[in-house]
Structure formats: C-alpha cells, structure tokens
Amino acid sequence: MNNKVLNNRAWLLVLPMLVLVAFSAIIPLMTVVNYSVQDVLGPNARFFTGTEWFHSILNDSALRDAFVRQILFSLTILAIQVPLGIGIALIMPKRGWQASAVLILITLPLLIPWNVVGSIWQIFTRGDIGLMGWGLRELGINYNITRNAGDAWATIILMDVWHWTPLVAMLCYSGLRSIPEAYYQAARIDRASKWAIFRYIQLPKLTNVLVIAVLLRFMHSFMIYAEPFVLTGGGPGSSTTFLSQSLATMAIGQQDLGPSAAFSIIYFLVILLVSWVFYTTIMHMQKDKNPHGGA
Amino acid sequence: MAEITLKGLAHSYSKSPSSHSDYAIRQMDHVWHQGGAYALLGPSGCGKSTLLNIISGLLEPSEGDVLFDGHRVNELPPEERNIAQVFQFPVIYDTMTVYDNLAFPLRNMNTPEYKVDPKVREIADILDLTPLLSRKAKNLTADEKQKVSMGRGLVRDDVSAILFDEPLTVIDPQLKWKLRRKLKEIHERFNITMIYVTHDQLEASTFADKIAVMYDGQVVQFGTPRELFEKPAHTFVGYFIGSPGMNFMSVTHQADKVMFGELPLPVNEAVSRSVAAAGSSNIKLVIRPEFITVSNSPEPNSVPVEVVNLQDLGTYSLLSFTLNGQLFKARLPEGHAPVGDAAHAVFSDQHIALYVDEYLVEIGHE
C-alpha cells in the first residue's frame, strides 16, 4: 500500500470526498467515542474509564424502558403506515388534474416542520380550545393526553401517521406508476382477481420502494424527538419518553457527557444493526432459492 | 374454437372524430377463420396494435362490431373472450415459479390441482420449460419468459385464439427463429387461431399462412405471402414487401403515349390502353427490381439511364440508377451488371403493374 498509492495520483481525487466524510461522519463519531471511554472533568482532568459508561447505560432501567417504548413505537407506526400508505397509493387517481391535486394535498403534512407538527397537535388535542380534544370531551370521552398515558400514546401515533404516511404513499404511488400497462392486461386475460393482481403484480413490483419506505420510516421514527417533546414532553410520567429525549436530558440537561456518549454509540449501533438485518433479509428473500434445480 | 369477424369496425381515440386522420382504424370488414395462422403486418403507428387490442377486448371499438362465432362480443372484457395475448415485453409473475406462472390462469378459474398438474406439465413439455419449472420466473432469460407468457395462454382448454403483439422484439436474433418454429409447431398441434402482429415482413411470412397488410388504419391487402409479393393490391404493399421494394413511376397519358414526366415510356399496347382508360390523375406504373434488366448497349424498348451505384450482395447485385431524376433499384443476376455510368434499362412488359389511386388495376396482358 506504499508504492501504488504514491504512484497513483488518482487518489488525490478521492481526497475531497475523504475530507468531506471525515468532517461529516468520522470526526464527530470519533469525538463521541472519545467521550464514551473517558470521564472528562475539566480541560486538564480526564480519566480513562474503559467500558464503565457502557455498562452503566446498559444497566439503566429507565433507559431500558425507553428502549422498549421506542421499539414498540417504531413497530406500531410501521404496522400502520406501510399498509395505509400502500392503500392510499392504490386508490389515488392515476392521471389528469385529479392526480396532481391529490398528490399536492397528500404531500402537505410532509412540508410542516417537526416542532410545528407538535404544536399543531398540542393545540388540536387541548380540551378547552382544541377541536379534537374539545370534540372528544363533548362526546363524553375522557380524553386527556397530559393525564392518561394511553391517550398520549394514541395521539403521538396518530400524529406520526398523519405526518409520515404521505411519504410511504408517495413512494408506493411512484412504484405503482412504473408498472407497465401490459401486466394489468395480461392479468385480466389470465382472469386474475383484484387480490391476485395486488399480490402477484403490484406488491412484488413495490418491493424495492417498500424497502426504502420501511428503512426511512424505521430510522426516522427510532430517532423521533421534537414532536412528542412538544406534544407531551415525554409524559405523563415518562410514558412517552423515547430514546432521543432521554439522551437529550442526559447530555444537555445533566451534562453527563461520558454516559451520553456511550448511549449515543449504542443508539447508533442499534439503528445500524436493525437496518442492516432488515435489508439483507429482504434481499436474501428475493434471491432464487434453487437457481440450478430441476423440476 | 372461434371464427373472429370484424364488421364495419372503426376506432378513434378522439371522442368526436371528424376527419379520416382522427381514426386509428378506418372502417373495415374482416374475417379471421378458425384455426388460421395470420399475421398483421404494417409499419409503426398503422393501427395494428389497436386492432389487436380490440380483438382481445382490451379496447372497445368506437364503431362496428367484433363477432366471435357470430356472437357480438364488443362489451365483453378480455377474461370472458377465451383469448390469450402475448405482449411485446414478456409479462411474467416475478415472485412465482415457472410452474406457478403456468398454473395461474387455471387456479384463477378454481381448477382442482389434480387437473392443473398434468396440464402444466404437458404445456411445459411442449415449450421445453420442464427443466425450469421450479425456477423463479424472475431470473429467466427473455425468450424463456416469453415462452412462459405464451404457456399461460396455452394451459387453458377454452382458449380459441392467441394474439401476439410483436412477441420477438426483445429476443436475441439467434433465438428468434427457434421461437418462431415453436409457434408454428404449437399452431399445428392445437388448431388455435393465431394472430401475429409484426412490422417485420420476414417474421410475418415465415409464421403466417395469410398476411393482412395494414397501412394508415386500413387493411390494404389480405393474402398469402406469395400473393403479397407477386400481386400487391396497393402501392404500399409493393413498397413494403420485398427487398428492395417496387419502383414507382407516376405517369400520364398524352398524345397516345405513356409519359413519365417528359419521357415517353416504351410500353406495349395493353399497358398504354389501360393507362389511357384509367381516368384519374393518380396513375402509377410499377415494376419490381427483379424485372428490370440493365445493359451497356441500347436494346429494343430500352431507356437510357444513369447508374448511381452497384452493390454486390453475393448471389445478386443491386443496381441503383436514375431515370428522369428519380431513383430506381434493379436486382441483377451476378455478372450481368453494366460497366460505367451510362446504361440502358428494359422494363419487362409482362411484369409492369398499373395502380390507379394507389390500388392495383388489372392490365389485359395478352
């Protein structure tokens, strides 16, 4: 790796990219790694702690609860948003001005900043002036997101579904639009039912966009912060405190840099691991199981 | 089993067609007999795919009727017409195995598995797909995929016609003839009406017993490949069929002579009489490149021409020359080409054909 590199000037062309990646990913990550294995008390007072912070994080029961809540939240919104997104994409108009109009309407929630989404729903769900909160109360339902954990959960999920299902729907819509008309014609001639058309033509052709949709939605929801923070502040109690909020409290509120750094690394590795496992599983499923076999 | 009749059929994609040009298919009557192997030949945009989709039921014609065995089926969707269609790009169900692909139409009709299995294996055997039955259809080559999509049409007992929409477009050239032979074989074996859309005259003539040549939304001629070649009923057929196509001369009849522009053509009495009797301003004399002889010395009834170039194509040579400023092609046997730029051409009287308003008019050759 000496002569070759020295003689090969093309490596210089990689340099800008390397610098970019270093500043965008490697150096910040290394900073975190640096903090995670030391106890930094001041500019000149630091002690090497090894894996101590990691142990304490993994044994922290509050964090473990937040982790379970986080998993539960991500799975719930995926289970709702993916089928719902596919369903919306299927019934969206295919052409004409209606198609454009529906597309714009559907995309609107995606354009609203996270904090604003939280504020909108915070007001929306208030019992005194919020349409939904007031409406439910008038109907005789005891709905209060600051008091009932169940209400808080349901509202956060509803909010996320409202905010992000359009993304899934749009990805699916683009996937559906790319299926050639001949497939539908052939299916009609083969007397395929609506369900069979969905199962054997549309769904397989959607696999790739769905992989992207699930990955994006998983990563996104696993890092959710601003919306629940504004809406419930993590409460009631800690019933809607997710990982990001726990981390922020620890790092900014308590200035526990060492444990927060260790926490960040574990957090990052979990997202990486889940995404990787999911992606490889799907790609593996698509492979021909018996490429050379006979009948 | 079906005889497919098109009665007064016309189709326009616009809602209120006013002129000829609004029609993708102009009014036509046509019968496809049970068990025939037909080709629908024409250039891109002539309406052949539209016609095919009308027959299969993917499109409803705006005028006229489609009859299957005398029953009007205009409004029947494709699934109720007992036809199969093979598309330009192979349509297969990616996630299924080849076996499941072939079984799919049967299972959609709730056929019991004990009947599905032998049928699928029989068709797979005919199409040489047996070794591939357990493979995922997604990973097949284009020609295998096309065979699978054809097989889905064949497994159904009730299929009375298979429509092909340029099915060999994406197939490698060396596999095309193999697949075409397979089609022939299937046709002979199953007594199914087959209609094959293509823009390739070679494909059409090797596959079909009878070819319908389409041009500008109309079937301009319906005949055997031989008839199309020897007796094109329309100038377009003469131009489209054969390689190269026919030579056309727009002529007039003046002072008892057949004039090609300023040049009197040395044609015989019969031709001259027919031209005189044509009574139209659109008169064309037509001759195939095979029936022109060109030599260096003037001969009786020859006209002086200017040679443009000579292509040696192995068994014959193709000579391009100009006469009266128009380019002609002559197909000459090897060793019969003239030397130099100036030459004399003779048009064989027996093989000159007359077209009035683009359609063939019989000449009373003695």
UniProtKB/TrEMBL annotation, chain A:
Gene3D superfamilies: MetI-like. PROSITE patterns: ABC_TM1. It comes from the Bacteria. CDD domains: TM_PBP2. It is a multi-pass membrane protein. Keywords: Membrane, Transmembrane, Transmembrane helix, Transport. The chain crosses the membrane at residues 12-33, 71-91, 103-124, 152-176, 197-219, 260-279. It holds the Pfam family BPD_transp_1. It is found in: Cell membrane. InterPro entries: MetI-like, MetI-like_sf, Sugar_ABC_transporter. Residues 67-278 form the ABC transmembrane type-1 domain. Belongs to the binding-protein-dependent transport system permease family. This is Sugar ABC transporter permease. It comes from Vreelandella piezotolerans.
